[in-house]
Every structure is written in structure tokens, then in C-alpha cells.
């Protein structure tokens, strides 16, 4: 009798935890900072549930993925506690690692709980209707924010609820991860015009990404979606020519509608590369090249860990020797716009090892355990966007991909018997 009551209480806690995740997920577009706070509460609930469920860890399909996230989070928190300096000009860098450390720790507990595929995890909150509603709300909010900021306010770059021109990049990353989740949800719909909804979603997302003017997302997203389409055709042994034709027309229409913005970004890219060849790194692209080069210089003797200030001192010295790298000076107080370079320049080989552990465990879980090509696409997006940005840094981008990952896993685990392309 006591065990029965305890199990019921534990089931209620799981439902509360997941319900909080749903609320946090649906808040990302309008207020990602509120989303982080709600997510933290859900993570605290998940921690207490995990204490009871720890015996199931050995048999959990997601144990290595959860462990890698937990280790990354713990290392970030330790790094922050060792090197934080309230008087540092790079104080925001230290706070960024504090925030992402907490998100990774809480995320590891939540992911572990939702990945458990047993009767105890079933309940009203795990039904597909919750995911349908979440996907619909997110899509409406993305469209609404984009129309409001781009058409009504005339903003040069759509930033969603984020502020500042550079946060358009964070908005683009958020849209990519949310789009992959929405595609996964749409694949579970059992309606005749599902493919048309998928194409409409692709078109809308592509337009939104173009309005953010984030080159990495604009280039990465259509390639990944096209790759998914090819894999879907291969697996189903059927070539839907009508769908392919509509897809091509939608892609061309989207490119044509936003051609002026895309041409401008393309010209900016060429001009930045020409300037960099002329030893001028004080441009958007040139600064990234300079950051990567100086970041690797700073990492060359970082065998354990070093603070952001220590790294920046090395970068400053490198720029003094080679003034053509001065573009790095404007950004070094934040991150270095590359996941690997940023990680190895602060947390050294151990940080890089944990990053690769996360990537490998993610792939094994997505491909071998979930048998999901869409989750593999999620991972490819994560890696691709990390080439010119950072995924384990600050709040806004980590909370977006973390919640998208958790919600996707919850959908796949609770509907594992559905015979759909996933």
C-alpha cells in the first residue's frame, strides 16, 4: 500500500516535471529567460525523481548522453567557481559558463527521466496531443514575431524576443532547433495533407531564417532538410515526384522572395573575405578567422584549464605580434564563435574530450536506440551551427536546443511503436 502511494506520488512528479518542460518550451520565443527559470524548476524536480530511479541508469539507452551532459555541466560550474572575477572586463563570459552549466546539469536529469520507456512514465501529459499543441503554438509565435519585427517595425534583422543585432544569430539557431522538433511532430500526424504541411513549414522557416540574416543557418537548414528528404525516399523506396516538385518550387519561391537580402549577405561575405586577404580582420567574417587563429594560439599551452582573462591576455599578445589579427580583440571578451576553439581555449583537452563524448553518445542514441534520422539531423545542425557559433554558452541557445532535445526524446520514446519516418 505504501509502495503504491509512493509510486503514484512519483508519477505525479514526473507529470509535473514534464508539464513544466512544456511551458518552458512554449515560452522560448516570447521570453527565453523565463523559459530558463521554469526549466530550472523542472530540473530540480527531475533530480529528486532521478534519485529514486538511479537503479535503472545501467539499463538506460540514454545513459551515456545524460552522463556527458552532466559532466559538461559540472565542469562548467567548477570552471566558473575557480576563475570567476567580478572585476573582470570579461565577466559576461564567466556568467555564460555558469548559466550553461546549470542548464546542462538540469537537462541531464530531465532527459534521463523522459528517456525511460516504461508504464510508469505514461500519462496524459505524454500523449501526442501535447506535442501537437506545442508545435502549433511555437509555429504561430515564430510567424507572429517575424511579421511584427520585419514588416511592422521594419527591423533589419529579426531577433524574436532577443535584443541587439548579434542576437539575430541566436534567434536563427533557436528557429532551426524548433523547426526540427516541429518536423518530428508533423511526421506523427496521420492526415492526408501531412506532406503539404511539412513543405509549408519548411517554406515559412526558410523565410524566417532569411529575415535573421544569419548565413550559417540559411545555408545549413535547407541542406539538412533536403538530406532528410533523400533519406526518407531511400527508406520508403518510393519517389514522390509531386512532393519533390512542390518542394523545389517552394525553395525557389523562398529564395526569390528574399533574394535582395540574400544577395546583400553574399556580397558582404565576399567583401569580408577580400578584406581579410588584405590583412584586414575588422569585419564580420574576418574577425571570426582572427578569433579562431588566436584562440588556437591561446589553447596551444592550455593543458588543463585557463580563465577567459588568461586566454585574452595571450590573444592580445598574439595581436601585438601580428596586427592583421586585431579583429579578434572586439569579440574576445565573449566567445570565439566556434565551439571547438572556444572549448579548447578555456577548458583545454578535457573540455574537448567531453564535447566529443556528447557528440558520439548523441549519435549512438539517435541512430541506434531511437532509430531516428530526424534526431541525427538535429545533431548535424548542432555541429554545423557550432562551426561559426557556440552551443554550450550562455542561456538562449542552450535552452533552445536542450528543450527541443528533451521534447523530441519524450515524443519518440512514448510513441516508439509508431511506424513513421522519424
Automatic annotation (TrEMBL):
Transmembrane segments: 36-52, 64-82, 94-118, 130-148, 168-186, 193-210, 216-234, 241-258, 350-367, 374-393, 399-416
Keyword terms of this UniProt record: Membrane, Transmembrane, Transmembrane helix
Pfam families linked: Wzy_C (PF04932)
Domain O-antigen ligase-related per the UniProt entry, residue ranges: 202-356
Membrane disposition: Multi-pass membrane protein
Coiled-coil region(s): none
Superkingdom of the source species: Bacteria
Subcellular locations according to the entry: Membrane
Entries under PANTHER family matching the protein: O-ANTIGEN LIGASE (PTHR37422:SF17), TEICHURONIC ACID BIOSYNTHESIS PROTEIN TUAE (PTHR37422)
The protein's name: Polymerase
Organism: Kosakonia pseudosacchari
Lineage: Bacteria, Pseudomonadati, Pseudomonadota, Gammaproteobacteria, Enterobacterales
Amino acid at each position: 500500500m505504501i509502495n503504491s502511494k509512493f509510486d503514484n506520488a512519483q508519477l505525479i512528479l514526473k507529470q509535473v516535471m514534464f508539464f513544466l518542460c512544456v511551458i518552458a518550451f512554449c515560452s522560448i520565443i516570447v521570453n527565453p529567460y523565463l523559459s530558463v527559470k521554469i526549466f530550472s524548476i523542472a530540473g530540480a524536480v527531475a533530480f529528486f525523481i532521478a534519485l529514486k530511479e538511479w537503479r535503472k541508469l545501467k539499463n538506460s539507452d540514454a545513459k551515456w548522453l545524460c552522463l556527458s551532459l552532466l559532466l559538461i555541466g559540472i565542469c562548467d560550474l567548477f570552471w566558473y567557481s575557480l576563475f570567476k572575477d567580478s572585476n573582470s572586463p570579461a565577466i559576461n563570459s564567466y556568467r555564460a559558463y555558469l548559466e550553461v552549466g546549470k542548464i546542462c546539469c538540469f537537462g541531464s536529469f530531465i532527459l534521463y527521466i523522459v528517456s525511460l520507456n516504461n508504464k510508469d512514465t505514461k500519462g496524459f501529459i505524454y500523449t501526442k496531443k501535447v506535442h501537437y499543441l506545442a508545435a502549433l503554438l511555437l509555429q504561430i509565435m515564430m510567424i507572429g514575431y517575424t511579421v511584427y519585427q520585419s514588416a511592422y517595425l521594419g527591423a533589419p534583422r529579426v531577433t524574436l524576443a532577443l535584443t541587439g543585432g548579434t542576437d539575430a544569430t541566436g534567434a536563427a539557431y533557436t528557429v532551426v532547433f524548433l523547426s526540427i522538433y516541429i518536423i518530428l511532430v508533423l511526421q506523427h500526424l496521420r492526415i492526408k495533407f501531412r506532406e503539404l504541411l511539412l513543405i509549408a513549414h519548411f517554406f515559412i522557416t526558410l523565410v524566417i531564417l532569411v529575415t535573421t540574416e544569419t548565413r550559417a543557418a540559411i545555408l545549413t537548414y535547407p541542406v539538412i532538410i533536403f538530406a532528410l528528404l533523400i533519406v526518407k525516399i531511400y527508406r520508403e523506396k518510393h519517389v514522390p515526384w509531386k512532393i519533390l516538385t512542390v518542394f523545389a518550387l517552394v525553395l525557389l519561391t523562398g529564395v526569390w522572395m528574399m533574394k535582395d537580402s540574400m544577395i546583400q549577405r553574399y556580397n558582404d561575405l565576399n567583401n569580408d573575405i577580400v578584406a581579410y586577404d588584405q590583412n584586414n580582420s575588422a569585419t564580420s567574417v574576418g574577425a571570426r578567422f582572427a578569433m579562431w587563429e588566436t584562440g588556437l594560439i591561446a589553447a596551444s599551452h592550455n593543458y588543463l584549464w585557463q580563465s577567459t582573462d588568461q586566454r585574452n591576455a595571450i590573444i592580445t599578445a598574439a595581436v601585438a605580434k601580428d596586427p592583421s589579427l586585431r579583429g579578434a580583440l572586439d569579440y574576445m571578451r565573449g566567445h570565439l564563435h566556434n565551439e571547438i576553439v572556444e572549448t579548447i581555449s578555456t577548458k583545454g583537452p578535457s573540455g574537448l574530450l567531453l564535447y566529443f563524448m556528447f557528440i558520439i553518445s548523441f549519435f549512438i542514441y539517435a541512430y541506434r536506440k531511437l532509430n531516428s534520422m530526424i534526431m541525427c539531423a538535429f545533431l548535424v545542425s548542432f555541429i554545423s551551427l557550432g562551426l561559426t557559433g557556440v552551443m554550450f554558452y550562455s542561456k538562449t541557445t542552450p535552452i533552445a536546443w536542450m528543450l527541443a532535445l528533451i521534447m523530441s526524446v519524450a515524443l519518440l520514446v512514448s510513441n516508439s511503436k509508431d511506424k513513421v519516418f522519424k
